[in-house]
Design goal:
The chain is of the alpha+beta class. It is built from three helices and five strands, in the order αββαββαβ. Helices cover 29% and strands 26% of the residues.
Length: 116
């Protein structure tokens, strides 16, 4: 586990204090977001009030994909956008990191819907 000081330094790479709160001031690379969200949740941040949700309605994201008989994810395709390309990219990134299982003996097609 990282020290409190190292977590704070990592956090401050992307957030700046503004009055009594912190504001996101630098884009967070997709591969860093999971750790940053863990830090925010550990600090008591309510993810239901995330900035990306504030004052807007996002469409459900629909992803089409295939899983081969040897459990390989293939043909990942964004079928419906949330309306925000950055959010679409983040959802696709997370989806591609998931584990999949297929016991059918053949490639199967799937559809995944992510609602906000």
């Amino acid at each position: 586990m990282a020290s409190a000081e190292s977590r704070k330094r990592a956090f401050l790479n992307y957030y700046t204090r503004s009055g009594d709160s912190y504001r996101l001031t630098n884009p967070v690379p997709l591969e860093v977001r999971e750790k940053l969200w863990e830090m925010l949740e550990d600090a008591g941040y309510n993810v239901e009030q995330a900035d990306y949700k504030a004052g807007r309605t996002l469409n459900p994201i629909v992803i089409g994909f295939s899983i081969t008989e040897d459990r390989q994810l293939r043909g990942v395709e964004l079928l419906q956008s949330s309306g925000d390309s950055d959010i679409d990219a983040a959802v696709l990134y997370g989806f591609k990191r998931a584990s999949f299982w297929n016991k059918s003996g053949e490639t199967i097609q799937g559809r995944f819907v992510y609602r906000f």
